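Notebook entry, structure prediction.
Reason for the run: the old model in the group folder had no record of what sequence produced it. Starting over properly, with the input documented here first.
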Amino acid sequence: MATGLLILTLGRGTKIQDLLMAEDKEYVGTVKLGETTTTQDRQGEVVESREVPDFSEGQIRAALDKFTGDFYQTPPMVSAIKKDGVPLYKLARQGKEVKRDPRLVHVYHYELGRVELPEFDFRVVCSKGFYVRTYAHEIGQELGCGAHLAALRRTKSGKFVADGAITFDELKHGTRESVAERAMSLADVSRLRGV
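New structure, fully documented this time:
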C-alpha cells in the first residue's frame, strides 16, 4: 500500500542514517471516507462504516486546515515505536493495545487534489514522526464520517526525491557495479543537503 522513497545507507553512511531520517518528509496519498479500520489504513479490518455526506471541497479543506502547524498525534498501534522493547506493531498483531503518548508533529503545507467521494487525494509536507495513517483517521473524525488511508507514496525526504531514485527492480536485478554507480557518496550527500 505504501510506496515511494526509502533511504538506504551502506558502510560509513550508516553513521548519518538518524540525521537523514530526522528531516522533513513529503507524501501524496488517498483518503477513503466512511470507513474506519483497525490499522487506520486499507490493510486493516473495517470496524465501522458510515454514510459519507456530499462534502464540498471547502468542507474537506476546513478539516485539513485543522491539522496544519503544530499539533499532537497519538501514534497508531501499527507503528515501530517500542513499548518495553517490543515494537507496537508486534503487540497489535497479538491483539494487544497499549497506551501511547501523543507526540508533537508539524504540517508545513498541504494540497487537496482529486475529490471523488468517498475518496480524495492530498499532498502533505510534514515533520519527522508524522503518521499519515493517523492523519487520515483524524480527518475522518473531524468530518464525522470516519476515514482511513487508502494509498500512500513518500515523494521526498529532506533533499532526497523519489523521481530519479534507483528502483526496487534495479536494485534487485542490477549488477553490483550498476547499483554502485547510482549510489551517492557521503560527499555527494553533504553537497545535496547544503552542509
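Summary: The first strand starts at residue 2 and ends at 4.
The old model has been moved to the deprecated folder.
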